[in-house]
Batch of 4 targets.
Target 1
Amino acid sequence: LIKGNHLSKKTGFGKLYFKDESRNPSGAFKDRPMAVGVSKAKEFGREIVVTASSGNAAASLATYAAKAGLKSYIFIPESTPPGKVSQAFVNGGIIIKVKGSYSNAYAVAKMAAREFHWMNITTTFLNPYAVEGDKTIAYELYHQLDRKVPDWILVPTGAGPLVFGIYKGFTELNFLGLTDKKPRMAAVQAEGCAPIVQAFESGSRKVDAWGTPGTIASAIADPLKGYEQDGELVLEIVHDSRGTAVAVSDDEILGAVFDLARNEGIYSEPGAAVSYAGFKKLSENNVIKEKQSVVCVITGHGLKDPGSAAENLNIPVIGPDLEELKSHLK
């Protein structure tokens, strides 16, 4: 957990924190559900595990399956960032690209698991053990904040099991009498793929699948096609916690990537930076108040998907000459 320094001063929020999940072994929060899911697969005597993934779950499953001595099959969209594909491949994952969106990869993984009796650890709500891994963030925050509960937790959201898991963890702590409140949860999506936000803003409790995603935040570009009920469960959490759901543009996301890196030294992929982009939007609209404590979950490392930020590179080239350097510095 990182206490905001420069961004706290710039925004006026003295209790702004970043839960940096890029420090996990494979560089993303997916290590939490995969650690539990793969452990259960080992316990059940399963030899083959499978997941659908937009990239981070792929790398994580391959990592933990390798450690456990299991074979892993991974179904990903064609558009998955090369860094994530490479990481999964190097760790021994058997990767198969599926045409179309993440929802198509999800459908193929589900069919394959049933047909070949593989254990499906897809990190939506499909595997109950994997979801349990997500709630460990709540336990860590409870201890890292000296047993205090933050007023708001902002979570990058695709299907939304992380929103559910974190809230479940705090709900359990509250049930045990260890806390006197629960956090308000903010599900943050990209404008180019925001089925949950669309339902929330319309006042509906029914989530409709999105069409073709169009966003730089590939990690959360989940149309929920065929499992719209996952989004409806997230909506329940948002309402129960008196929270909100908000969508941010690609420009806002890219701005958040640079803000986090240049002010706090946190290099995040676009799909992870949406939590801070969402915070900026909600605080500017006075939904989140200055005196409230806020945790932005940063779900994955920038090296997972550097492409969008790299497109903005404008790096000069000079010869090995001091005068040329001086001329450039002017």
Note: The chain is about 45% helix and 15% strand.
Target 2
Amino acid sequence: MATKFALLLLALSPLVFANTASADTTNVLFLAGGRSHASGEHEFNAGCRLLAKALNEQSGLDIQATVINGWPEDQSVFKDVDAVVIYSDGTKVIQHGWERADQLAKSGVGLMFMHYAVHPSAEQGERYFRPWIGGAMETGWSVNPHWVADLKALPDHPISNGVTDLVRAYDEFYYNMRFQEDRDQVLDLVTAVPTRERLKRVINLWNQHGVNGIGKRQTLMWGIQREDGGRGVGFTGGHYHRNWAIDDYRKLVLNAIVWVAGADVPQDGVPSETVTEDALNENLDTYPKENPRIPLPNVEEFMQLPPATNVSMEDYENAKAAQKNRARKAKAKQLAK
């Protein structure tokens, strides 16, 4: 009898161990936004899949990352999820699930928003984003220039694991976020200092706060430990798809994903394979015209770009007025034909 019982245990042991391993697995759900901008910009689907592949196949961690395009119709995908990462245009994904996301946050699930996804309305920022992740972009308060940043990770925090030097990247790094009232509870996970020389493009959301922030350290990735036990992270980079090929840029984000999911970040950071040009061009959004091939980034080339000439508010308003005048003349010329 004892022998039969032992044989039964032996037969069942793979199932027992499989269930144990599954219970210990960290589950990350990426929600990718739809096609946006030009090819190589706002490549939400391709970016999510590149990061998920790094976590699933290259990190060596007990982690399962899943990518879904848009807000899921099947709500069962949220079962046992440890973190949800949203990478999209504004609130185009989260708008379909405000209350569900709020329930997830209050149950301790980690939430991370990347690039344009950190930009809700002022009301949504106050009601959801600041409680969830500690801050958000806000029109009239925050700015969205394209600039070359030397990213500095917060020392002695898991985000900085394996990243020993400054990480240089050219991106549309928003800054001057609207943070929660208890600012001391918000971690400045990644920071950089914008300068007039580093600002290469000043565009539609520029304001006096952006001017005032020049020469001052700005928070480009932030995080909180919520009272519900979960964590929240916001990251303003991610406009240019090519930047995922910068090893330490990618590592900072992978470290953040693992941290927001409540898992341990390896001492040397989350490992991943160097992204080749072929890998960078996988899963890109399709457009009516053939996609131009995205080259690997050469940040020093972007350093050579001339500084923006419309940084002061006077120059910015003059440039905006001139642009409107050109558009008006072009329209009149077209109508005259």
Note: Residues 313-336 form the longest helix (24 residues).
Target 3
Amino acid sequence: MTVYYPKRIMLAHTPTPIMKLKKLSAELGAELYVKRDDITGLELSGNKVRKLEFLIAEAVDVGADTVVTCGGVQSNHCRATAAACARLGLKCHLILRTETPAPPYDGNLLMDYLFNADFTYMPRPEYKKNEEIGFESVLEGIRAKGGKPFYIPVGGSVAMGCWGYTRGLEEALMQLSERGIRRAHFVSALGSGGTHAGLVMGRYLLERPDVSITGFNVCDDPEYFYQKTDRLIEEFSEKFKVEIHASRDSHSIIDGYVGPGYALPYPELIETIKMAARVEALILDPVYTGKAFHGMITELQKGRFPKEDPIVFIHTGGAFGLFPQKAEFVF
């Protein structure tokens, strides 16, 4: 089936390669691959830029001059948004959730400052309250100064942003086809839900029931993300007048690897991150990819994934998130 995509602004270095993890594959008796979306571009590294290509195109189309988005103080999405805006000559205003009035310049936050973003810091209760109404007070403040803001919710996980990983899945399937691979299991981290939902929608729109989509939640719980996926599919179908029949049987969400909480590491996770770097020179982060990769390896060893079908881990970036947690690593 031919998929017709909305307008996008080309920001990412794509197609990103699919690489076989040869040593881990031999050790685990499985066919393990990684889709290297961590190298979509140094400043734009990760999955968020695929969503931003569509979202910022929409912002430009409606005449916006300021992109407003939100997230944690070490948000990969916020850093990628700030980088994209700097490249395109747009203003960027970041609303960051933090309990520290002046968080240290480290990791993604350092990059945000380098990209000349503007900031609003909010403690968690205030952030949550304002997020429910789309941070209207911040948008109104920008309008009062003559600006034309365009708001992107957390992670870019809205209907338009989901196109990013529908396109990403199509790209990956073409690359697998060149290797003679048709059936495959796609695995990714689940943080705000847009990447996972885009993959689920892509599976349906591309008419590929022979691939499976699995997400490992790094916060909340599976039911939250099943509901989020259902809601994004509904919004997508309504916005783009496309019927998508993707039941919960068409994808799976695996819990048990969040640890003590979002962005909080634990010993087994740290050991998996160190192992991936040592064995495959694969850099994972303690917030998203590390937890999903640790979950994938553990579940593979438990027999969750059939070893005869290739597994493709979608590396969604996040290397800048390693540095604020460097104290967790002991060598």
Note: The chain has a mean pLDDT of 97.
Target 4
Amino acid sequence: MLVSVIIPAYNEESTIESCLKSLLNQTIEKDTYELIVVDDGSTDSTPEIIKRYPVKLFRQENSGPATARNLGAKNSSGEIILFTDADCIADPNWIEEMISPFIDEEVIAVKGAYKRGKGNLIMRFVQIEFEERYEILSKLNSIDMIDTYSAAFRRNIFMEYGGFDTNFTKANNEDTELSYRLSKTEYRMVFNPKAKVYHTGHPNTIFKYFKLKLRIGFWRVIVYKRFPDKILTDTYTPKTLKFQVLISLLLLGTSVLSFLHSLFFYAFLSFLFLFLISSIPFIRFSLRKDTSIALLAPFFLMIRATAIGLGSVYGFVSNPFTSIGTRNTKNRGQ
């Protein structure tokens, strides 16, 4: 079974070499997989670095990672196509673990895990965020979210459903949109926690983290407009997070209105109490991983929920393109 590994790259001169070295040092035979890099109009030395390695290089004008990944898939030869990011470093057995679930013919997509080493508090909090989600996913027979940092698809299904929606010109939620489309099929998508990549691009300040979650909130609501059944429940998002997003918006509203009447102040205190209660599951989970993060969890969770909430409100009242999914993408099952 030939495998194609596709990496979109835009101005990744500081990370692409480590990424390619890790992918060229895999446990499976080199003649069983190909590496495809799509340069998305880089203006730095990324293309020159890529040319030093035995990979297929395609270039396009800067159009975003969704378009770049689709171009790589179109020019791939593998029955299975894998995606990762140019700032990720794959474990030596990453490809082997990513393709192993495809022995089950009902499986059409596989999600791997995301790790990083020690860092500052915000970076450690982000890692625990992921690990909380992974614990949820590892208990499920089928999932509805395949993240592109560690993703695998049967090529025929990926092409049949039109790949990533290129209306998503930024690296944000294009994988969610495709995952939700594929979740409507009669096939399964699964999580393999043994397939690990190490990401070097965690946000390392509160400000960067807030901006990231703000964008995630915005684009996720754009996707929810197309898949409203996912608003209340999906396999990837902890239920407490969606509750906290709502509470954070109520906290913002009542904090402003409390200047007008004392009843709003009492409402603010009630919502704050509910938020703290809803933080208990994450605090308990964090205690098993990192005591410092557990102690600061309510603060980090409030930052996260507020950013996602504000982004969601903006996404709800706006639309970054006229009609989501206007290009030829299939929506079987809707």
Note: The two ends are 32 Å apart (CA to CA).
